[in-house]
């Protein structure tokens, strides 16, 4: 009886382990494919961010801003002799 119990146990568990191995292998393959897709999407985001950062650098360059200010808005740099500085002597409590 004991010998048959071991035989029945082996007959049931060996296919069960084989089935679990196949299931685990399929699950691993699916996760590996998903990981590949996610890594590809991440690489696309990184490239997109690099392009956006480069665009920001070009658009915020001082030369471009100066050109827009002078040509499009009619602004000009102020000369140092045109600057008027106001200094208030004293401090709090001395009245106005």
Task: Describe what you observe in this structure.
The chain is mainly alpha-helical and 96 residues long. The protein is built from two helices and no strands. It has helices spanning 2-59, 62-72. The longest helix has 58 residues, at 2-59.
Q: What share of the residues does DSSP label as strand, in percent? A: under 5%
Order of helices and strands: HH
Number of strands: 0
The number of helical elements comes to 2
**pLDDT under 50 segments (min length 5)?**
none
Helix content: over 70%
The helix-and-strand class reads mainly alpha
Main sheet: strands, sense, barrel: none
Radius of gyration: 38 Å
The oligomeric state is: single chain
Distance between the termini: 112 Å
Tell me, rounded to a whole number, the average pLDDT.
Answer: 90
Short description:
With 96 residues, this protein is mostly helical. It is built from two helices and no strands. The longest helix has 58 residues, at 2-59.
Kindly list the characteristics that best describe this protein.
single chain; 96 residues; mainly alpha; rod-shaped
Task: Outline the fold blueprint.
Layout: H1 2-59, H2 62-72
């Amino acid at each position: 009886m004991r010998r048959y119990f071991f035989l029945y146990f082996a007959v049931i568990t060996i296919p069960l382990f084989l089935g679990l191995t196949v299931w685990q292998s399929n699950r691993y393959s699916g996760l590996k494919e998903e990981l590949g897709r996610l890594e590809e999407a991440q690489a696309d985001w990184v490239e997109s961010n690099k392009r956006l950062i480069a665009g920001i650098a070009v658009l915020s360059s001082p030369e471009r801003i100066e050109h827009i200010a002078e040509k499009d808005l009619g602004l000009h740099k102020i000369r140092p002799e045109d600057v008027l500085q106001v200094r208030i002597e004293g401090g709090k409590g001395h009245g106005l």
